[in-house]
Amino acid sequence: MPLANPIPTTVVTGFLGAGKTTLIRHLMETAGGRRIALIINEFGDVGMDRDILSACGVAGCGEDDIVELANGCLCCTVADEFLPTMEALLDRDPPPDHIVIETSGLALPKPLVRAFTWPEVRSRVTVDGVLAVIDAPAVRAGLFADDPEAVRALRAADAALDHDNPLEEVFTDQLLCADLVIVNKTDLLDDAERATVEDQVRAAARPGVAVVGASHGRIDPAIMLGLGMAAESDLESRPSHHDSASDHDHDDFNSIVAAMPPVPASLAGAGPQAVADALAPVLAAHGALRVKGALDVPGKPMRLVVQGVGPRVQAYYDRPWRAAEGRAGRLVVIGLNGFDADAVTAGLAASLRSGGG
Ligand SMILES: Nc1nc2c(ncn2[C@@H]2O[C@H](COP(=O)(O)OP(=O)(O)OP(=O)(O)O)[C@@H](O)[C@H]2O)c(=O)[nH]1
């Protein structure tokens, strides 16, 4: 018997680096006194998102309101990780007004939405809406489109091969589960490109789903929260590549944690972007989809955060190192399966040591 007021939950999906954390941070900053609890899940565990979100400094958005699930993608760990976390949040006194779940960039949202039908939580929460954050420049660059030439070449080589593009699969699964699609990073496109991407996304989304453009995830919370979709009762209308698969194990992707040497003074002295520029060619050469982590700059109390999505790599100082972190530089690098972890690590370290030269 459902309760009169199940707690609304918003699921935020979107590919690696599309801007989910940025959007949620903006949401927390503008949510106007609502008690929002966050569940965050990262693929490749260096825990950067928690830092970015807990630094938002909003009253009522404390460390305790952010729960991090680090062991694999939420979509694969619903029973072991997600349900107990959810029950613990619901048992709080007072319970949150709203729950926001940031899924990892490789997670499929549908298994998570399905978990809301499980008896443990069914009567206590509802999926208010699934938001898909889309990286507009990546769509524009064709990252999620099947490359017809590559498909033809594979077919010629081996008729039995699975020809699906894993990026396209994850992207479409996320898009087809969405109740609201946010085409983000529009600041990196001109008006015509933006219109083309929005049309393309609208054509690929489920009919009638709203598509809105955004830069740095700046969307009015009134548009994102309170959609009232009860997505868990509407699973049939959300098609997935994995509906018939019993499990989904992310075998198509590889994530490594690369230990990095201290940044030499000659490079660090040229500024954060020089450090990012030193790393970018190595990441590009290995086809990295996402990089995230922090580097040690000797003599600086702050750690140097590195954030990269596809070809764009940025770096900035964010906070002092904590004693327990031991100033250990580490980068999570995520790519398609098959990239050589040792070669990526060695290449990045060498590029730092040589200042990118
Ligand atoms: N130019 C530009 N950069 C953005 C925008 N939104 C996010 N970014 C940057 O893109 C990078 C990734 O943003 P995140 O918010 O961490 O993306 P995410 O989807 O949470 O990433 P994962 O959790 O790793 O999948 C960061 O360096 C952001 O600063 C945007 O609208 N415009």
From TrEMBL:
InterPro entries listed in its UniProt record: CobW, CobW-likC_sf, CobW-like_C, CobW/HypB/UreG_nucleotide-bd, P-loop_NTPase, Zinc-reg_GTPase_activator
Protein name: Cobalamin biosynthesis protein CobW
Function: Zinc chaperone that directly transfers zinc cofactor to target proteins, thereby activating them. Zinc is transferred from the CXCC motif in the GTPase domain to the zinc binding site in target proteins in a process requiring GTP hydrolysis.
Gene Ontology annotations of biological process type: cobalamin biosynthetic process
UniProt keyword terms in alphabetical order: Chaperone, Hydrolase, Nucleotide-binding
Similarity comment text for this entry: Belongs to the SIMIBI class G3E GTPase family. ZNG1 subfamily.
Database matches in NCBIfam families: CobW (TIGR02475)
Catalysed reactions, as listed in the record: GTP + H2O = GDP + phosphate + H(+)
Record organism: Roseospira visakhapatnamensis
Ranges of residues in domain CobW/HypB/UreG nucleotide-binding: 8-206
Superkingdom in the source lineage: Bacteria
Gene Ontology CC annotations of this record: cytoplasm
One term of GO molecular function: hydrolase activity
Domain CobW C-terminal: 279-350
SUPFAM superfamilies found in the cross-reference section: Hypothetical protein YjiA, C-terminal domain, P-loop containing nucleoside triphosphate hydrolases
